[in-house]
Structure formats: C-alpha cells, structure tokens
Specification:
- The protein has one domain: Nuclear Transport Factor 2, Chain: A, CATH 3.10.450.50.
- The protein is α+β, with helices and mostly antiparallel strands and 142 residues long.
- The longest helix has 19 residues, at 3-21.
- It has a six-stranded mixed β-sheet with strand order 2-1-6-5-4-3.
- The mean pLDDT is 95.
- 15% of the residues are buried.
- It has three helices and six strands.
C-alpha cells in the first residue's frame, strides 16, 4: 500500500460524503465510476451506472443540507483496489415528513480507473427483524 494512495482514497471518501451533505448531485457522480454498481437502501435491488435525474429527485425530497456522517471506518487500500466498511448516519428535514435520522451499514469499494481513484461499488443495509414480518430496523445506534 502506498501512503499516497490511502490518503487519496480517504480524501475521495470525504469528498463524496461532503457532496452528499450539500446535496450536490454532480459532485457525488464526479466521485463515482461511470459503471458504478450500487446496492442502496431504496429499490431497486441493484443499480448500475449513474442516474443523475434519479439522484437529484431523491436529493430534492430533503430541505436544506443533509446530516451525513461516516464513522467506525475500516479503510484498506492495495494496488488499484480499496474498500471501506463503516457505519453511516443519514438525517435531515424530509419535505412533508419532518425530521428523519437513522444509522445504517455502509461498504464502499474503490478502484483506480485511468490513473484516478473512483467509487465503483456501494452497499447500504440495515438489520431486519428475524421473527414475524421481516421489517428493516432503523432505530439502532452504534
């Protein structure tokens, strides 16, 4: 691992998080590969590529900036690949729904493409109840 690569990937993760906080769709997409594979909390089960219109539509469901925090990170980089597992908190003022805030599990995978580090995969999840009707659990905290 090169210390420079580790710092570059760490900075990319920070830039992506800041772009989410400020709801800047272009900056979010600028951190991601054109062929990103995403497993988000919202349907569908899987997405490939960047859907700017869909991303902007989701960002527009929030008033003001988002509260987006990444913590408990385990960032590893080797060669042209890196990954980070973490806990993340998303919150803010949802239009017509009031204040929202919840923690979820986050994995981000990075790859060097054409000499530049980019996010190539994201995976978000919440635990779900294992008995009765399977429902996502959104009130857990680290």
């Amino acid at each position: 691992m090169s210390i420079g690569d580790y710092e570059d990937v760490k900075a990319l993760l920070g830039n992506w998080a800041e772009a989410l906080r400020t709801k800047n769709a272009d900056a979010i997409i600028g951190c991601q590969s054109a062929t990103i594979r995403q497993f988000t909390l919202a349907p569908p089960l899987e997405e490939s590529g960047n859907d700017r219109a869909g991303l902007q539509a989701w960002l527009d469901t929030w008033e003001g900036d988002l509260d987006f925090e990444i913590t408990n990170t385990d960032l590893r980089v080797g060669g042209d690949i890196g990954w980070c597992s973490a806990l993340a908190k998303l919150g803010g003022q949802k239009i017509d729904q009031g204040k929202q805030s919840f923690w979820f599990r986050l994995t981000v995978t990075f790859a060097r493409e054409n000499g530049r580090w980019l996010i190539v995969h994201t995976h978000e999840s919440v635990p779900f109840a294992m008995h009765g009707q399977p429902l996502g659990i959104f009130d857990l905290e680290p």
